[in-house]
Specification:
Distance between the termini of chain C: 17 Å
Shape of chain A: globular
Chains: A mainly alpha (501), B mainly alpha (111), C mainly alpha (146)
Number of strands of chain A: 2
Number of strands of chain C: 0
Radius of gyration of chain C: 18 Å
Number of helices of chain A: 21
Structural class of chain C: mainly alpha
Order of helices and strands of chain C: HHHHH
Largest sheet of chain C: none
Strand order of the largest sheet of chain A: 1-2
Radius of gyration of chain A: 22 Å
Strand content of chain A: under 5%
Helix content of chain A: over 70%
Structural class of chain A: mainly alpha
Number of domains of chain C: 1
Helix content of chain C: over 70%
Shape of chain C: elongated
Oligomer: heterotrimer
Distance between the termini of chain A: 11 Å
């Protein structure tokens, strides 16, 4: 129990908050200080998350009592391998998007307030991932959501305000339903600590209230994570936001606040494995409906937002299977989708920065004038469509094989169909944006600034080598242990109590 | 019985969000739902014959109502305040750009 | 209609008498947060309301002369940084947010220093934040009327 190992855990939340308040205070004085502070802090968090993976693999699950109070009296922060997995994804992609946003947000006024809200959203997401207490989860969920409502409306054009208002109403209702679920769970178990609730629920075994609370959580977190009947806010919000914010929302927020929280509560805390068929059905419907609606779009970012709905359906299908192979496929697809969807949104932002339009019918032939954006976009499109040897191919293959192995060939058929349609959608995007003839008015555009190119190339490299994550030497520590943490859901309580004493 | 009344207030708020056309009425509906949930939380903490959970100099800790929901509600009220403030600011900006508060006329995004 | 900003003479007179009392009451609730109900957030809201009361009765120019917007913004960030640094002080004791400063004797005003300082920091942030929000809404309303 050395000092350095354990005191780093609250830094994941405290560091972005502190830097955000400093940026508000000093941002107007010196011009470049907000860029430097934001980049340094996200870089520090990314390195800290990689260090945390090493620590958790060496010591097992580590817990941290905030303020020295023992749970269930106090709040504890729990880092097990699933949390480390999510932390690495969130912090590294945030660092890359920050580098992109340094030059993209020059076009907007009030860049300091952008960085302040951005770091606040990061603090909220990190808090949801590492917390071990139910009400703390709700508080950080709302912090992240409120910061994102403000960021979607950042440009204050007409479309952005309308989209942000719709997103805000639906997000608030989702938060209220989650609060109702937490209240009912508290009145049933009289404790708020996640491990304690798991112990009490497994002892009491009265299933009617647990079913009602599980349904409330499914609806609430499903609204936050854009599952099938609750996805209506996503196309407006993700297409109207500025490009780095769309990348953060679509790549990270709907997964950290929606899918991860749902997995944590339904698998580790409530142990309600009778809900898995519901996951599979909702996931499949998201997959198919998302991709069919994406084919008919002519707006670049709206098309990408609809395909986000479809890919989150893949993740839910993988996790809902319940077999170890399926869960590993679902988590791997979560990692891959964060990377290539962020890359696609950053590409659309680059196209918007250079040409000023997002309409597919007006763009064309940008490959000659913008080589870096075109090649990274090609890598991302091949990856999301599932072509070998990029990382999307491996994760979709694992999910389809797991479906067939578990005895659900119908779901495997729908997964293959959605994959073929995704290939169609992205061939359409590539043809209309990059590969046809160059229009007259676009002959004078230049490539985007260096920082934007650097971040896009970095993400494309991770896309390319992402398949290596399946090699057992690398994935044994990282991916496989995260999947094990879910399948061992029943032992969450014992693991946390052991590491406390 | 009082729990049921709280759920009726929640349902009234939900009706206001779903069925009204004015932006300000939708915001008021969300606020009413938040207040209904806060009241429900306080009711969950009630114990029969309890007094207020304040530690004073010459009184023992016996027969108090549960203080934890009261701390939770304080946080939830702050979150509600932040959400309401942001919604009102957005509604003012929408009125500047569109000139109306009617949601059937604010429909630039479709498809 | 009134030719000068603000409300009628009765409202202005009552405001002049009560604004100081409201501010003092807010500070009382903040400082006694560890002994009686209230604490940082409730006291901060009451402090903000005293300035907003001034703005409603006299028009926003008078209220902005008492605290201008950049000063309020700086005070707000300062309150937040004070709160985070109090939390970081807990690292001395070994845990984040640990109760490092002394505990004092129970039930007296100057005890539990950590809670007292946190209450003051929170009241600064909440008070200035709420005041800024309501002044911005009033300013935006002025623009729409033009």
């Amino acid at each position: 129990m050395t000092g350095i190992n354990y005191n780093m855990i609250p830094l994941f939340v405290a560091l972005p908050l502190t830097v955000s308040f400093f940026i508000i205070l000093f941002g107007n004085r010196v011009r470049w200080i907000s860029d430097v502070l934001c980049t340094l802090s996200t870089l520090a968090l990314c390195l800290l998350s990689l260090y945390a993976v090493g620590v958790v693999n060496g010591h097992g699950t580590i817990t941290y009592k905030v303020g020295g109070w023992f749970p269930p009296v106090g709040i504890c922060l729990v880092l097990d391998s699933l949390s480390c997995f999510m932390l690495v994804i969130v912090n590294s992609i945030t660092m890359i998007v920050t580098i992109y946003a340094i030059s993209y947000m020059e076009r907007y006024t009030a860049k300091n307030k952008f960085y302040a809200l951005f770091l606040l959203m990061l603090a909220g997401m990190n808090g949801v991932i590492i917390t071990g207490d139910m009400f703390n989860l709700f508080v950080f969920l709302e912090i992240g959501s409120i910061a994102s409502y403000g960021l979607v409306a950042f440009g204050t054009e007409e479309e952005e305000l309308e989209a942000s208002f719709k997103y805000m109403i639906m997000g608030s209702i989702a938060g209220l339903l989650i609060l109702l679920g937490i209240g009912l769970l508290y009145s049933y178990t009289s404790t708020l600590n996640m491990a304690d609730i798991a112990r009490v629920v497994s002892e009491k075994n009265d299933s009617k209230l647990i079913v009602f609370v599980s349904v409330l959580f499914l609806v609430g977190f499903g609204l936050k994570g854009a599952l099938f009947p609750f996805h209506w806010w996503l196309p407006d919000a993700h297409s109207s936001a500025p490009a780095p914010i769309s990348a953060m929302l679509s790549g990270l927020l709907i997964k950290a606040l929606g899918v991860y929280a749902l997995i944590r509560i339904l698998f580790s805390v409530l142990n309600a494995t009778s809900f898995l068929p519901v996951f599979m059905v909702l996931g499949t419907m998201s997959m198919v409906i998302g991709v069919f609606l994406a084919v008919v779009q002519w707006d670049f970012k709206r098309l990408l937002a609809y395909s986000s709905i479809s890919q989150v359906g893949y993740i839910m299908l993988g996790v809902g299977l319940g077999t170890p192979l399926g869960i590993m496929g679902g988590l791997f697809h979560l990692f891959n989708h964060s990377i290539f969807k962020s890359l696609l949104f950053l590409n659309s932002g680059a196209v918007d920065y250079a040409t000023g339009t997002r309409d597919l019918k007006e763009l064309g032939g940008l490959r000659e004038r913008m080589p870096v954006s075109a090649s990274t976009s090609l890598v991302a499109s091949m990856s999301i469509a599932g072509l070998p040897p990029f990382n999307g191919f491996w994760s979709k293959l694992i999910i389809i094989i797991a479906c067939v192995n578990a005895g659900h060939p119908v779901y495997a058929f729908w997964a293959v169909l959605a994959s073929i349609m995704t290939l169609t959608v992205f061939m359409k995007v590539q043809k209309y944006v990059f590969f046809s003839e160059l229009k007259e008015k676009f002959k004078v555009i230049k490539e985007v600034p260096f920082l934007m190119q650097f971040s896009m190339v970095l993400l494309a490299l991770i896309c390319f080598f992402g398949g290596l994550l399946l090699v057992p030497a690398v994935s044994g520590d990282f991916l496989q242990s995260a999947a094990d943490a879910i399948t061992n859901g029943k032992e969450y309580a014992q693991i946390v109590f052991q590491s406390l004493r | 019985m009082t729990y049921f009344l709280c759920m009726i207030v929640f349902a009234v708020g939900l009706y206001a969000v779903v069925a009204k056309r004015n932006l300000i009425k939708i915001i008021i509906g969300v606020m009413v739902m938040e207040y209904a949930l806060n009241m429900l939380f306080v009711l969950f903490g009630y114990r029969l014959g309890g007094r207020s959970p304040i530690l004073e100099r010459y009184q023992e800790i016996k027969d108090i109502v549960d203080p934890i929901p009261q701390a939770l509600i304080l946080t939830a009220i702050v979150i509600g305040l932040a959400t309401t403030a942001l919604m009102v600011a957005l509604a003012i900006r929408i009125y500047e750009k569109y000139g109306t508060f009617d949601i059937t006329k604010i429909r630039k995004l479709r498809g | 209609m009134n030719k000068e900003p603000g409300m009628t003479l009765i409202v202005k007179t009552v405001t002049r008498l009560t604004v100081g009392i409201i501010l003092l009451y807010g500070i009382y609730i903040v400082l006694h947060g560890h002994l009686s109900p209230g604490g940082g957030f409730a006291g901060g809201v009451i402090i903000a309301l005293s300035f907003v009361h001034l703005m409603l009765a006299y028009g926003k120019d008078v209220a902005l002369k008492k605290i201008s917007m950049p000063v309020a913004s700086m005070l707000e960030s300062f309150g937040a940084i004070l709160f985070i640094s109090i939390a970081f002080l807990g690292f001395i004791g070994g845990y984040f947010f640990f109760h490092t400063l002394g505990k004092g004797e129970p039930f007296s005003l100057l005890s539990a220093y950590m809670v007292l300082l946190s209450n003051i920091a929170i009241s600064l942030k909440v008070g200035c934040g709420l005041f800024l929000v309501l002044v911005s809404i009033a300013l935006a309303g002025k623009e729409i009327k033009k």
